[in-house]
Write a structure and sequence with these properties.
The chain is α/β, with parallel strands linked by helices. The chain folds into two domains: about 25-50 and about 105-140 and about 195-298, Rossmann fold, CATH 3.40.50; about 50-95 and about 145-185, SIR2/SIRT2 'Small Domain' (2-Layer Sandwich), CATH 3.30.1600. The protein has helices at about 1-30, 60, 65-70, 75-80, 80-90, 105-115, 130-135, 165-170, 195-210, 225-245, 250-255, 265-270, 280-295, and strands spanning about 35-40, 120-125, 140, 150, 155-160, 185, 210-215, 255-260, 275-280. The protein binds nicotinamide-adenine-dinucleotide. Nicotinamide-adenine-dinucleotide (NAD) binds near residues 42, 50, 218 and 266. Nicotinamide-adenine-dinucleotide binds next to helix 13.
Length: about 300
Amino acid sequence: MIQLSLLVEDCRKENELNMEELIERAAGDLISSKYAIALTGAGMSTESGISDFRGPSGIWTKNPEAESKAYQTYEKFLADPRGYWQERLRAPSILGDLGEVKPNHGHYALAELERMGILKGIITQNIDDLHCKAGTQNILEYHGNAFKVRCTNCSSRLYADEYDLEGLEREGELPLCRNCGGLLKSDVVHFGEPIPLDVAHRSQEEAWTCDVMLICGTSAVVYPFAALPRIAREHRVERERKADIGLYMVEKVSASTIVEINAEPTPLTYENTSDYLIQGKTGEVLPKIVEKVKEVSR
Ligand code: NAD
């Protein structure tokens, strides 16, 4: 019994040591980067009290029916926009009341890395507005924002509270864009709905440009978002291939490094798209990385 508990203690210490080394490695990679970006997913916000979808206590892990319903939302909008707006305004969101939710230490840590000039921006799958609330300036909201509406014609986006959506719905009117008169939908990108072109193009460019990519709290199974780390990875392979034949030697020095911070391994871990995984909570790991960056750059 005593021997077993000593063994468990040894493992715990080894993990902690490993974690410390990895945090130091991530801080070093960030400090020497020229263009670091972060990709974030639902795991980033679980410590703020918003459930993820596919983690062990995720909404869809516990309730697979909610997942199949979510697949019908976009078709509903196309077939019956009035019914779509009625449902959206009357039924509670499956993510709960997002208005009450506050950013956590992980969101603040990423905002701080941006203020330090290290992180150039975030591409998030989250629709909860928490990166913005934490102070990050440069955000691409790949799956939209639950607090905004988007015009289906000119793609302009506005916070929904600038429209009287409930009033319009009571009068049987559809919400229309102030710029062009196009039909508005929620900015949230539903299953089956194309990613808005402006965001899709800019995200792809960021994945091509970055030399460090931090991937935080995502299972990396929802496409096309999940292609972004693979794009960054392929870019690196391409840079290295060119370096082997004597071209782009300077590029090889700054080849992209892909770091995952996640509670569990993901397909990116198993297929070696990421260089290393820091297994833990983003709200704990990211602040430690920021501290280490400060310590090393002092
Ligand atoms: P996901 O649910 O598929 O995966 C979340 C991942 O994060 C899992 O691997 C889980 O183990 C990990 N995780 C959970 N808590 C963590 C923590 N504290 N620290 C580190 N890792 C943690 O999420 P996804 O990959 O983002 O895909 C889900 C889709 O659903 C996205 O497209 C997103 O738009 C949407 N979504 C958004 C929110 C939100 O806005 N907060 C919440 C749920 C779902």
